[in-house]
Request: fold
Amino acid sequence: MRSPRSSSTASAATRRPADVRATLIVNPFASRVTPELAERVAAALGAVETIFTERAGHATELAREAETEAVVVFSGDGGFNEALNGARPETVLGFVPGGGTSVLPRALGLPRDPLAAAAELRAGATRRISLGRANGRRFGFAAGVGLDAELVRRMDARGRREDGKRPGDLVFAWTAVRALAERRVRFDPALEVAGHGRAAFALVANADPYTYLGRLPLRLPRGASLDAGLDLLAPRRLRARWLPGALAYVATGRTRLPLLRIHDADRIELRCDSPLPLQLDGEDVGDVGEVVFEAERAAVTVLCGR
Reply:
């Protein structure tokens, strides 16, 4: 659905030219998106066109077909991921937080409020950032094989509310507790990280934090950066008696847990003992037997805050 508006280095930032035209892509089913708010975001951006997605994967098509210099996405993390996989190399991308988590715009220093974020994008700067790829598909901030991808799948199985929105953070936390309890918090090695050894599951990050629980940042592979390669954090195994150590790692970054860690890598290869779920930016992309993660350094130009 379309409506007019009335309807150097990776870390270096440059000012956005005032005459850059922007198309706004809106996911109407994202947790915080309403038609009224979408119209106000379009006005704050000065978007020349607003397009609403109609199905899964639609943002990929719309980003590829956009005729403006910039494409801004008002959505959750799934919509951002779709745009990253569709945008042409010369397109400047922007991200307005419309989901319950919206990790990528927060990683770029934007406020959580959609109108405030849109205003900063219009008056802000551009920068080059790095992305990750998993078996060729791009992701912006995080990927997981095993446990966290299983949690994403379980959340998807819950479906959406009557208004089309996804359940919130409390439901996700309860889903995680139930998943751990079902296995009695016993996770044995289930995959091989090539050249590094075996692990129970794997988290791959292109940004720090890995995700958020409400306002709480979950810094899992600590030190990951949108200006660098990929980081990996993979528990070699996990037991119930080690949960205090896991919580200590989340809180402080220090623990005695048996962890496999990789920092600023260009390539990470995983081989699973049997197919395991894979998630990219919080989206279930199916089961995999092998995954090749690759860093795509300085891959795309994005709009960022002041």
Confidence is low (pLDDT under 50) at residues 4-10. Residues 169-182 form the longest helix (14 residues).
